[in-house]
Write a structure and sequence with these properties.
Largest sheet of chain A: 2 strands, antiparallel
Distance between the termini of chain A: 5 Å
Low-confidence stretches of chain B: 450-454
CATH architecture of the largest domain in chain B: 3-Layer(aba) Sandwich
Number of helices of chain B: 16
Largest sheet of chain B: 6 strands, parallel
Strand order of the largest sheet of chain B: 3-2-1-4-5-6
Distance between the termini of chain B: 16 Å
Strand order of the largest sheet of chain A: 1-2
Structural class of chain B: alpha/beta
Strand content of chain B: 25-35%
Number of strands of chain B: 22
Number of domains of chain B: 4
Strand content of chain A: under 5%
Radius of gyration of chain A: 22 Å
Number of helices of chain A: 23
Structural class of chain A: mainly alpha
Radius of gyration of chain B: 23 Å
CATH topology of the largest domain in chain B: Rossmann fold
Number of strands of chain A: 2
Mean pLDDT of chain B: 83
Oligomer: heterodimer
Amino acid sequence: MRVRYTLHVVGVLLFFLGLTMVFPLLFGLYYHDDSVVPLLKSIAVTLGTGLVLYLLFKGTKTEIMSHREGMGVVAIGWTAAGALGALPYYWGGTFHTFADAFFESVSGFTTTGASVLTQIETVPRGLLFWRSLTHWLGGMGIIVLSLAILPLLGIGGMQLYKAEVPGPVPDKLKPRIKDTAVVLWKVYVLFSAAETVLLMLGGMDLFEALCHTFGTMATGGFSTRNASLGAYQSPYVDTVVILFMLFAGINFSLHYQFLKGDSLAFWRNSEFRFFIGIVAIFVLVITFNVYHWVYETFSQALRFGAFQVTSIITTTGYVTADYETWPPLSQSILLFCMFLGASAGSTGGGMKCLRIMLLLKHSYKQLFSLIHPRAVTQVKLGGRPVSDEVLHSIWGYFMLYLGLFILCSFLLAAMGVDVVTSFAAVAATIGNIGPGLGLVGPMDNYAHIPILGKWLLILCMLLGRLEIYTVLILFVPEFWRK
Amino acid sequence: MKIVIVGAGEVGFHIASRLAFEKKDVVVIDKSPEALRRVSESLDVQAVYGCGSNPKILEQVGVKAADLLLAVTDSDETNLIACLFAGILSPATIKLARIRGEEYLLYEGALREAPYGIDVLINPEAEAVKTVVRLLQVPGAVDVGEFAEGRIKVIGVRLDKTCSVNGTKLVDLRKKTGQQKILVVAIKREDRLIIPSGDDELQEGDMIYFVSEEKELKAALKIFGKSAERFNRVLLVGGGNLGFKLAKALEGLSIHTKLIEKDPDRCRELAELLDKVIVLHGDGSEQGVLEEENVRDMDVVATLTGDEETNILTSLLAQRLGAQKTVTRISKFSYFPLVSAIGLDHIVSSRLAAINTILQHVRRGKVLSAMALKGEEAEVLEAVALETSDVVGKPLRNISFPKGALVVSIIRADEVIIPTGESVIQPEDRIIILSTRQAIPQVEKALTVKLEYF
């Protein structure tokens, strides 16, 4: 890999990131809070770092980016964005250690929403806005946004796009990658604008509406309140957020096709049917499970059941109820949702419905061929055959995901964290969800995890967001050889 | 500009890569997932799985919004049907089909007209034969392009050690040689393409491209140390389709031609079809056979069998045995750079010929012909200067032409002008432009609309 060239492109990304920090600064200035100075310092450092990298490694001009370098740019770029994005918190005095600030920042960019903040409401609003904005940037992807806006990244755009939006089956909406990125961001902005307006109609001010929209559309989960969305006690807000979490958990190319006038776009897509079906079943099961046990009325059971299921399965991580007091069946369903995740091509994390669906189909095919040894079968997706190679790579991903989950849980447990918490914390970070069970449950946070454990979870969040391979490749020595 | 390409084979892939580089919206359709993967992994284009002759697929990829449909699969039938359905779905789209079958080409006229409306039919082998014939007519040249019905030629030559102009600056070239109408437009030095200015020097080993009028070609070639003697004796190895067509063309030019073919039945067939060409039965890759046919007195040995490795080795062998010049048929694109490195300058490939011909139809504006320089970093275009174009009506030095592009000649009726900064292009002039790949989109724009728009 050409390290110099990779860093050159990372420089462009960081410069761009520095520019986005201007938005929280505007809020900071408006509210006259303590975020202005740390934000100004962070902007200067981020822009400076970007510019230095860009200029220092400016090589021969027409370089063509290889697949490897694409992955390098994305992995290094995301890590660096996490580090520089942590500066406002660190300088703002929100955290005492850089590890905490870094954790919060990575949790933002990877749309995990796991927080180490104990008192959210005392943090200056400029910083809170930055916290939510990192969700929004990371949700659709820093690279995808850069591709849409910066002409500079045109040449290697494809490689970058594939490294940031891996997915099991590639999906390109327009012939050119730049146009694809623009389309995705248009849909994203459109939905975000709609949700902001709807939340403001529900009584939030612009600041809170924007922050919660960012958290929803990116399937992030950072709130501006200690009690998350539960603080609003409003069925209207819950409903709006449930709807938009679902939107964010659906493949964005379907939204695009639908908006272009293809009214059946959703229904024709088998992953959508699978996703919606699962959500519906789980919501019903949980509703009946918690009705009488926890909630007096059916409508309450439905409201809280639906919210928690969509929040976890789309990997958003907002909470309106303490699901740890729910019956075991409900809890185990939610735990399963953490692994399942949202649709491919959405802003959600987890293993993705598409993968699970294909694995189920493949397993059934194996079973079928035991009954009919001579049968010629083919796994299909939307009527099109799925090659064995794709299936193998999905099985590989599945095993890697589970393997990393187990390994990291053991490591966390080795640091003295209790078993339930270790497993849940790793599941909730690698799946980019946020709240887990035990000591990192819906009403707790990650502040008490040992420092080393936080670093481990930071790695888990990045692994989950970039779908493992892109990050893991950095640890393979072969990758760094020229 | 949206372009739909049916077929992701070598031809489709290379056209797609050229067009994607020029930032055009390209959609490639193929039914081989393998081929599609190669496309989607290395090019910024949309790869669609399906059969290109299927109207449903064509509609799905948005052929209605496409400016061009290029049907370039290996199957003539698929190409024809893809064009026909594209015609039904979207009559305004320009349709181009790659057709190899002779029988189909007999109906070329009818296919071009309604109700079929296929705008261009390209026969790769015929194009390859044309390339070779052009090369044979200009001895000493490595690359030849014809413009203005052959009146103007763009010639590529390699400067040998003995060449008298080595070390000369281009400003001094005209003075030194006394030739007025000669213009060096591009220099290729160690894989680098230079669009030269007056201060650039010619060096030994350079591959240079110059523009010359047909009638002054001999004199021009002499300057660069190339003989202007016409080829008289040609040996063709391999009597396949391409070999036969070339033999037929050479027969017409009354060049003394021998053809060696391995298969006795095919030999008999060829002997029936050809009159003056001597058909020989034997293995052209054997030294004995070549020596027996006096290969050292041959001006040109062309190796045209279907096996490219054999062709390369046979050409090398022929060169060792004393053949003046060899032409080697190669279809694998990855061999091209390698082959010129081992000293085989002349390559013929029906695929490459097809690509070059197709590209000329892809150009916007009134582009009449086009030629890609070796290595494909640059292209030469011949176009009509439209009245709306901003290149018209003022001295060339005042035109903000994109960097990397150069007007190399102006043709006004019968007159050929090698332009200087003072020359003025008039409406309806034909102009020949050399442009690097990077500058091509801008050149295209300059030819169609006023320059202020970009």
